[in-house]
Design goal:
Blueprint (H helix, E strand, L loop, with lengths): L2 E8 L9 E5 L7 E10 L7 E9 L6 E3 L2 E2 L9 E5 L7 E11 L3 E5 L6 E3 L6 E8 L7 E8 L1
Antiparallel strand pairs: 1-6, 1-12, 2-7, 2-11, 3-9, 3-10, 3-12, 4-8, 4-11, 5-7
């Protein structure tokens, strides 16, 4: 399996649009496994609570396409597609992880062996990283997603 990284950004906070998503392509689909996730705010620090949620989807939100980078440059191009600066609400099918943080904090989740978040090899399926609760925080958010394909 090859490993890839997708860097996702959201310039302002939005309750229903995700920071970004990683999805299977419409063709040439391959199952992938998310094994590492880093989330945090990149704006001026403030004391506000933020909830980050990782949620499955069956249709990716609209947004600017991001090409995931292989962690080993000798690996083939990635079959999954990332979406950045999402401008639409995804069709969510279940929450996989929910993390409550202060906006001054950065958090890293690493899967235990065998505990990766698995996305099926079905067109347009994937995971979103959302912030459904963010208090009065209005700044930029970043999510770094590492996955195996």
């Amino acid at each position: 399996m090859a490993a890839y990284a997708a860097e996702l950004h959201r310039t302002t906070e939005h309750a229903t649009y995700p920071i970004g998503s990683v999805s299977t392509a419409a063709s040439g689909m391959r199952r992938f496994r998310v094994y590492d996730l880093i989330v945090g705010a990149s704006a001026t620090p403030s004391d506000n609570a933020i909830v980050y949620r990782v949620q499955r989807h069956t249709a990716p939100p609209a947004g600017t396409t991001v090409t995931p980078a292989p962690l080993d440059p000798a690996d083939a191009a990635c079959g999954a597609v990332g979406a950045d600066l999402c401008s639409g609400t995804p069709t969510g099918t279940g929450t996989l992880i929910e993390i409550a943080l202060n906006s001054r904090a950065t958090f890293r989740w690493v899967a235990a062996p065998g505990g990766e978040l698995v996305v099926p090899a079905t067109a347009s399926n994937g995971v979103n990283i959302l912030t459904p609760s963010y208090g009065s925080f209005t700044g930029a958010q970043i999510a770094q997603v590492h996955f195996l394909e």
